[in-house]
Amino acid sequence: MANNPSAIKRIRQNEKRRARNRSHKGHLRTAVKDVREAIDAGNLESAEKSLAATLPLVDSSVGKGIIHRNTAARTKSRLTRAVEQVRANAS
Asked: In this predicted model, what pLDDT tens digit does every residue of 51-63 receive, in sequence order?
């Protein structure tokens, strides 16, 4: 356990930040899952709508330092490519 006041404060701050980061990461995972479920169902309209809501979440996660920028780029690329594939199959 920490002995001085500054270390105790640092522990409090870290706990708050960890809770905030976990919450944001959970929202991000749920949004990505919604896009993938729409893709698997072949529902183009729902997939596009979910994708449009998810991409800004991915970008904001990078800005907040929750995920790495390359992870975000990979996620966005894969989701976009999958939605495009659904669009191609629907035509």
From this structure: 999 999 999 999 9
